[in-house]
Structures are given as structure tokens and as C-alpha cells.
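In response to the reviewer comment on reproducibility (Comment 2.3), we provide here a single inverse folding case reported in full, input and output, so that an independent group could reproduce the run without further information from us. The C-alpha cells appear first.
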């Protein structure tokens, strides 16, 4: 039984030493080169004798950054990728919590690490470290599947970054599940979209280690030009993508397949937001033979549930998030904290347990205690689960349906309202490209912000939406945006929009 993700890398490298594992437009690493580079880096980090401690990685997303991450793991530590485009004050806050034992930089980002008192090493310098095979073997001999693997910082509900600490077991279990449900071949190429500080990147970094395939890092600017993006997918022979829905929808909204199609795609995974069915149907119309999978997870649970689309869905249908992955548990708690029986349609908070569960929030025992709870189950008096904050229910066939976030649920005029229902109704209007609802608590106003090629009359919007939702759910204002603002992970920036329009001062329509 594997205890460390590097065991997969070492096994695969024996069979495919000269096959590419990571590449970008500037650099390619074969499995053999990645191991040599990572073991050199690991020898320097391991000399600090600080097993399980975090190493901050200040690098632009690249094939070299992926190799640096493997090096951190060889050193017996966990990696924390730092988004070098973040405001320096946010980086300062993260580092004050992280207190890393070392930092890996490159010339363009070294200044961001200068305030640290720990060793700061340039990536190119580290790759020249003589390998200490005895030290690396000693580190590995003490490996355990529950050892820390990563610390990824996400924004909390207050906007203050929180560090989620994941372990090797999460990835080991995920890779074994993938082998059964969605096996990759050595010829496969993953097209990486998200930054390495986003949890989806775990798929792009670690899948090649198990299957001998490779990951190509797509330049971010390609995602604003569908023609350029599709050309990149074809020239790199990309067979699998695991993207946030916004990356898929931009291709559909701009009719990206009018001139050419992705020729090699066979796996299309998406996660992180609700995927608009009308845009999903665009992809399925042009690429009917690919496998489409709605994934569900979070930084705290990685990929924990999935639903493969095996039938057609109407534009106004809700995609299920499906069932728990192997060795993962999913249950729904009612308002009294009791599990909802499977088959009962009552909605409640989705909770995830089993091998997908992360360790907790780094240096924040109170928040960990609040979100990671112990429940009595049929098999145990005290089983640990993560409270996701997502509202879900069981469908008649036992699959789970996502309804929205608890913090997207508002109360107005005595009614509980799911903002996601309003968004779903508005998204069906053909002229609307994207939409987001925000709530002004002070004035009890619902604002619908949308993007479209041209302004839509408010009466037209109201008429279309009122046909699908109840009267008390109707938005008070409609605001057209030139483009939807996004956070660093490519999702709609709901928090920023709510702050911007908190007082309802900017109005349109």
C-alpha cells in the first residue's frame, strides 16, 4: 500500500523515463529529469530536518514550479504555493500565518520572500544541489499517508485567508479511484488551466505520476481567445481537461468551435461552480464522444463526488453532483444536525468524510473544530466529517443535487431565498452570458448583475424570470456589466460584487 505520492512517480519513471511529465511553452521535464531535479531540491530541504513543515513556493505557474513542488515533497515537507500576483499585503498576511521553514523563488519573485527570516533559495540554485540519497531514504522511511502534502490558502467568509492542510492519503485515494472510473493512458495529455494555489491543480500535478501521462500548462492569456485556446489544445494533443466552468463557458459564449474543434479531447471534467447546461450542451453538440463529468469538491476535500453525464439534459435542468467517490462518504444534515435518510428529498447541509478529508485549517484549531465535526454513523460512534456549507438533497435515484451555498441563502420578507435559483432562471435567457445575484441586507434588495452583448430592457428581464420563480424572489434591480469580474481562481467574484454594490448605489435598468 502506498504511503507517499512520490512512490507513484518512482514506479512510473522506471517504465517511462524519457516520457514528458510536465511541460509549458518554455520548458519540458521528462520523468527522469523531474526525479533528478526533485531529489536535488529535496536534499537541500531535507537538510533542514523539519519533516511536515511548510515550504513556500514563490514561482509563476510553470513546469519548473511543478518540479519544485515534487522537490518539497522529497524533502519530507508540505508545499504552499504563493500567488505572486496577489497584493503584497495579502501575501504578508499569509506568510505571517504560514511561517515557512524555507522558500523557493525565482528572480522575478524573490523580493516577495525577502521579509522572511527563513532560508530563501532560488530554484535554479537548488537544482544544482548534490543528491543525498541516504538522507532521502531516511526521510521516506518515516513516511505516513496522513503526512501533510500541501497548504492551500483560500478566502474565508470574512475575506481573511485560511490555510487548508491536505495529506497524501487524499491524493493516493483519488488516484486509485480514477484508475477504476476514468483510467488514463500514457499517451494522454492533461491541459492545465487553474493556478497551482487552486485545489483543482492537484489533479494536474499528480495524475501523471500514477499513469505515466503528461500535463501541459496552458498560458492563461489563451483562455480569453477561444481560437487560440483550441489551437493550443490541438497542437499539444490535449486529451483531458479539468477546468472551472467559466473556462468552458467562454468557449461556448464566443462560438469557439466555429472554425476548428479540439481533435483529441476524451475527458472533460468541471468543478468549482454550477455549470450552465446551455453551455454544456454546446460542448456536447460539437464533441459528442467525449466523457463529461461534473465533479464536486473543495480545498478541504479535493474531489469527493462525481456525476458522469450519460443522458441529455434540458437547458433548465439542474446537474446532479452525483455520488461519493470510492472510500469517501457523503451525507446531508437537517437543521437539527441529524442525517437525512437517503431518498428523503429534504434539503440540508452536505458533509464529506472518509479518505477525501483534509487535516484541517493550519494553526487555526477553533475554525477546524467548527467545520470538521464528529458524527455518529452506522459504523462508528465518532466519525469525522467536513461541513461544506453547501445545501443539497437526494434525488429519487439516490444521487445528490446541489442547491447552493448556505451563505447564498438569504431571508427577505420572512422568506428563505436561494440566490442560485434566481441565477438559474436568469441564465436561461438567451441574451444573458453570465449572471450573479447579490443581496443588500440593509435595504433587503436583490440585485441581478449580468453580462450580455447589449442592454436588456428590465421589463423583458422581469417577464422572463417571473415565469420561473416565485414573486417574492424577484430581483429589485438589474445591472448590466461589460464583463464579469473574477477572482484568482477564475470564478465570478461574488464578494467583490457584493461590496461594490452593497448600498445599491449603482443601478441600471
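Designed residues, in position order:
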Amino acid at each position: 500500500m502506498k504511503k507517499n505520492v512520490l512512490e507513484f512517480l518512482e514506479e512510473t519513471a522506471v517504465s517511462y523515463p524519457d516520457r514528458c511529465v510536465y511541460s509549458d511553452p518554455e520548458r519540458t521535464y521528462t520523468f527522469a529529469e523531474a526525479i533528478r531535479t526533485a531529489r536535488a531540491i529535496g536534499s537541500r530541504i531535507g537538510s533542514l530536518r523539519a519533516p511536515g513543515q511548510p515550504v513556500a513556493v514563490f514561482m509563476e505557474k510553470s513546469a519548473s514550479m511543478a518540479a519544485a513542488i515534487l522537490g518539497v515533497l522529497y524533502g519530507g515537507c508540505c508545499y504552499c504555493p504563493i500567488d505572486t500576483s496577489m497584493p503584497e499585503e495579502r501575501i504578508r498576511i499569509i506568510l505571517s500565518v504560514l511561517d515557512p521553514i524555507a522558500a523557493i523563488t525565482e528572480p522575478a519573485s524573490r523580493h516577495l520572500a525577502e521579509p522572511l527570516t527563513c532560508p530563501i533559495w532560488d530554484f535554479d540554485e537548488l537544482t544544482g544541489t548534490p543528491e543525498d540519497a541516504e538522507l532521502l531514504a531516511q526521510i521516506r522511511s518515516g513516511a505516513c499517508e496522513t503526512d501533510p502534502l500541501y497548504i492551500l490558502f483560500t478566502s474565508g467568509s470574512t475575506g481573511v485567508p485560511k490555510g487548508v492542510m491536505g495529506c497524501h492519503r487524499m491524493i493516493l485515494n483519488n488516484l486509485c479511484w480514477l484508475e477504476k472510473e476514468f483510467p488514463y493512458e500514457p499517451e494522454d495529455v492533461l491541459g492545465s488551466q487553474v493556478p497551482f494555489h487552486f485545489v483543482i491543480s492537484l489533479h494536474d500535478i499528480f495524475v501523471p505520476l500514477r499513469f505515466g501521462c503528461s500535463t501541459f500548462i496552458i498560458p492563461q492569456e489563451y483562455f480569453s481567445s477561444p481560437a487560440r485556446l483550441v489551437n493550443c489544445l490541438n497542437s499539444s494533443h490535449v486529451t483531458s481537461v479539468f477546468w472551472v466552468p467559466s473556462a468552458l463557458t467562454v468557449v461556448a459564449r464566443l462560438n469557439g468551435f466555429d472554425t476548428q474543434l479540439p481533435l483529441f479531447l476524451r475527458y472533460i471534467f468541471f468543478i468549482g461552480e454550477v455549470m450552465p447546461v446551455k453551455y454544456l450542451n454546446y460542448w456536447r453538440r460539437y464533441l459528442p464522444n467525449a466523457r463529461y463529468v461534473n465533479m464536486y469538491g473543495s480545498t478541504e476535500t479535493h474531489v469527493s463526488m462525481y456525476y458522469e453525464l450519460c443522458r441529455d439534459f434540458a437547458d433548465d435542468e439542474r446537474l446532479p453532483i452525483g455520488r461519493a467517490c470510492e472510500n469517501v462518504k457523503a451525507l446531508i444534515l437537517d437543521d437539527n444536525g441529524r442525517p437525512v435518510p437517503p431518498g428523503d428529498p429534504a434539503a440540508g447541509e452536505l458533509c464529506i468524510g472518509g479518505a477525501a478529508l483534509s487535516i484541517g485549517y493550519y494553526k487555526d484549531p477553533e475554525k477546524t473544530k467548527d467545520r470538521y465535526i464528529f458524527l455518529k454513523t452506522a459504523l462508528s460512534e465518532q466519525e469525522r466529517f467536513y461541513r461544506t456549507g453547501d445545501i443539497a438533497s437526494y434525488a429519487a435515484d439516490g444521487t445528490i443535487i446541489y442547491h447552493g451555498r448556505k451563505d447564498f441563502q438569504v431571508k427577505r420578507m420572512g422568506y428563505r431565498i436561494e440566490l442560485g435559483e434566481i441565477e438559474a432562471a436568469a441564465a436561461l435567457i438567451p441574451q444573458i452570458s453570465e449572471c450573479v445575484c447579490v443581496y443588500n441586507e440593509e435595504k433587503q434588495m436583490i440585485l441581478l448583475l449580468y453580462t450580455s452583448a447589449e442592454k436588456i430592457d428590465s421589463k423583458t428581464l422581469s417577464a422572463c424570470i417571473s415565469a420561473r420563480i416565485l414573486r417574492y424572489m424577484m430581483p429589485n434591480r438589474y445591472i448590466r456589466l461589460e464583463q464579469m469580474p473574477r477572482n484568482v481562481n477564475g470564478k465570478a467574484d461574488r464578494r467583490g460584487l457584493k461590496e461594490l454594490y452593497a448600498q445599491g448605489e449603482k443601478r441600471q435598468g
